[in-house]
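Q: My labmate handed me this sequence with no annotations at all. I'd like to see what the chain might look like in three dimensions before we decide whether it's worth expressing. Could you predict it?
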Amino acid sequence: MIQLDQINDQILSVLSGDGRISNVELAERVGLSPSACLRRVQELERTGVIKGYRAVIDKSKLGGSMTIFVMVSLSGQLREDSLSFERAMATASEVTECHNVTGTVEYFLRVEVADLGTYKDFHSNRLGILPQVASMTSYICLGTSKDERG
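A: Here is what I predict for the chain of 150 residues:
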């Protein structure tokens, strides 16, 4: 585990809120010189603490968007069952998150599609045909009051 000091914590906090901030402004906000700040950011990137930068897209602005949360139970408990399922989800463009969880199901998926017909196709023809899948329960998201994913 990587130990972070107070300045690195501040850098991460600022970058998580605004990944496009200039190094000069970031340095000013955390009280460092631009060169010292840049060295710290590069080290956080090198060690994998900062995994990358991305744009957060509001898909509803692009003409229709649905989020469905899907709980998936697998038919087997072997490692290969999980690995095969994860490989299938890695290639499914509709799946934006795939979490292996504890409890009554093995996986929790976040699926983002344009409409209900597109989800039905994914549910029936991608997820429903996997031999590892024993059951699926879908929850259609009606609204989101908080989403801090960066």
